[in-house]
Amino acid sequence: MHIVFQVLTLLGSLGLFLYGMTLMSESLQKVAGNGLRKFLATMTSNPLKRILTGLMVTAVIQSSSATTVMTVSFVNAGLLTLTQSIGVIMGANIGTTATAWIISLLGFTADISMLSVPMIAFGFMFMMSKKPKHKSVGEMIIGFALLFMGLSLLKNSVPDLNSSPEVLAFVQSWTNWRFWSVLIFVGIGTVLTIVLQSSSATIALTLVMVNFGWIPFEMAAAMVLGENIGTTITVNIAAAVGNVSAKRAARAHTVFNIFGVIWILTVFRPFLRVVSKIVMGLGCADPLTPFATINAVDPALASMTMLYSVAMVHTLFNVVNTCVLVWFTPLIVKLVTWMVPSPKEEEVFRLKYIQGGILSTAELSLDQSKGEIVHFGQLMKKQFAYAKDAIIQADTEKFTELFNKLEHYEQIADRIEFEIAEYLNKIGEGEISTESAHRIQAMYKIIGEMESIGDSGYNIGRILQRKNINNLHLDEDMVKKIMQMLSLLDVALDAMIDNCDKGYTKITNISNALDAEYDINEYRNNLREEHMLNLENNVYSYLIGVYYMDIVYEIERVGDFIINISEAIMEIND
To answer: Which helix (H) or strand (E) holds 380?
Structure first.
């Protein structure tokens, strides 16, 4: 019973550490918000910048999984290329080594848990603020306090192997099988990271195990290698429902880490000797010496030696692996492109960017929504390309095929509007900034207007269908003028898509959309006046004139929807 209680206490301590790490990471992302997104999306012009970007972001938010998932979401949204993402992911692997050093320097040498409760009080004062950013700062402070409280409990809850040697006898029995033991502990590190969904938590557990002499340094090093494999699972899960580029970025992370582990294992002993030399240069003992031997002479030195050595293994592995594999980035791109081939034909009604669910912050989720809205606009432009073909199509069977496409795209518009609205509802349920709230309101308006564009495309098809049922035909001059008006509409649609793509942070005016709408309205007015004269002079029958002007008015209505979309983008900053 006592052993069961110890195990549960150990798991609870680990859970508290993991919760503190998660809370700190998520709140830091909220505090950084839009600035973090811009930083990650712009600092990728060369390999060194990409690596440094991944390193700095991960060191700040203390989660390589968060950085890599964020990176994959940017690839999914088209903000980063596959090549750029690989560099950021490499840097994230280096940045995550900061966790081991923080724990090594503070976790066991100083009782920082004494400050945890005052820090929680300090964080709670921030959370009393009505400003969302202040609340996020409070969450970050509380997360940091819980992290070290969990670490302290983790340290104190481990069983004393001298009085209860049977607790981990089964683990220690796996350490005497030479290289097979190394592979076993690589597997243990991998499985623990997959289960805990955090390499930071597994690193903390590894440091505890080696600090108390449960496992020798060599096995702890093997667990660290396994943790680098296990951490790729989170990213692959996030990319599972993403597009092809997102899947390739996730596979690149896996290839990078697995290949690195394989080549390090081939030189495992020499690699550990290099780590030993570096750590001894820092004033520690030789970590390859049995822990009990060092501990008998100087317990403090033994603890510091093991902790620094494990942290050094983690750092050296990721730094060396990055320095070696960064030169093979083009080959990694080719390999993952082969692993995840492009589909022959993607179904048009499928969402492209927001299939992976809500991301860790509203800002990142809204970026995915923005990508989906741009895609929505592109689909509506494609619908009007079919409408253009339907107007000039005389063959009944081919017209029916085009009419079915117009109807299908109207149904697509309904579905996409609903899916994006559902996604925006979920984002709005969380804590969001005023700026994010304005973006959500604008996006609701934009998708509503785009759905109306889809309705208008289908309405044009229905007008043409009624015309055909009455066996009437548009004359050559009518077709020419409708085509001219559709050309003006193309310009307006391009302006709409461009403004949606730029977004509220880059757009300074909507003169492109205003000019396009003005041209459409002027041309509509000219055609209306000309139509009245043609009716008076019996140039064509009244009924065909009705169908002709219905098409013209429907196109003009689309121009109104388009200008409303651009105005909604501008309103975000007001």
So the answer is: helix 362-392
Residue 546 lies in a domain: yes
Distance between CA atoms of 486 and 389, rounded to whole angstroms?
11
Report yes or no on 206 lying in a domain: yes
Per-residue pLDDT at 459: 93
Question: Helix H segments across 430-541?
Answer: 434-469, 476-502, 511-536
Inter-CA distances, 348 with 382, 421, 422, 444, 544, Å: 11, 19, 19, 22, 34
Q: Which residue has the higher pLDDT, 133 or 160?
A: 133
434-to-133, 405, 438, 447, 458 alpha-carbon distances in Å? 10, 40, 6, 20, 37
The encoded tokens of residue 361 equal: 């912050």
Residue 161 reports pLDDT greater than 50: no
Best CA proximity match to 212, nearest among 144, 165, 248: 165
What is the tally of structural domains in the chain? Answer: 2
Residue in the block written with tokens 């005052």: 118
Q: Which of 339, 354, 389 corresponds to the end of one domain? A: 339
3-state secondary structure 470-484: CCCCCCHHHHHHHHH
Q: How many whole angstroms from its chain centre is CA 97?
A: 21
Alpha-carbon distance 422 to 351, whole Å? 13
Q: Is residue 123 part of a domain?
A: yes
For residues 160 and 446, the model is more confident at: 446
Lowest mean pLDDT across 147-151, 192-196, 448-452, 491-495: 147-151
**Looking at the structure, do residues 240 and 296 belong to the same domain, yes or no?**
yes
Pair (188, 48) in one structural domain: yes
Residues 429 and 398 both lie in one domain: yes
Q: What CATH number corresponds to the domain at position 453? A: 1.20.58.220
Q: What is the mean pLDDT of the chain?
A: 79
378 in the same domain as 306 = no
Both 393 and 285 in a single domain? no
- Residue 77's SS3 state is coil
Q: What is the pLDDT, as a whole number, of residue 456?
A: 93
- Judge if 386 and 296 occupy the same domain: no
Residue-wise pLDDT for 252-279, tens only, equals 888 888 888 898 888 888 888 988 888 8
pTM tops 0.70, yes or no = no
Query: What backbone torsions phi and psi does residue 168 show, to the nearest 5 degrees?
Result: -120, 25
Q: What pLDDT was estimated at residue 77? A: 56
Indicate the angle between helix axes 268-281 and 244-266, nearest 10 degrees.
80
Of 292, 307, 339, which marks where a domain is finished?
339
Given a cut of 70, is residue 189 above it in pLDDT? yes
Q: What is the pLDDT of residues 523-563, one digit of tens each?
A: 999 999 999 998 888 888 999 989 999 999 999 999 999 99
Q: Is residue 348 part of a domain?
A: no
Burial of residue 331 (number of CB atoms within 10 Å: 0-12, 13-18, 19+): exposed
| 313 and 400 both lie in a single domain | no
Q: Contact 309/299 with Cβ under 8 angstroms?
A: no
336: alpha, beta or left, given left = phi > 0 and alpha = psi -120 to 50?
Answer: alpha
Give the other-Cβ count within 10 Å of 42's Cβ. 11
Q: Which domain holds residue 243?
A: 2-339
Residues 322, 366 within the same domain: no
Tokens at residue 195, please?
């289960």
* C-alpha R_g of the chain: 31
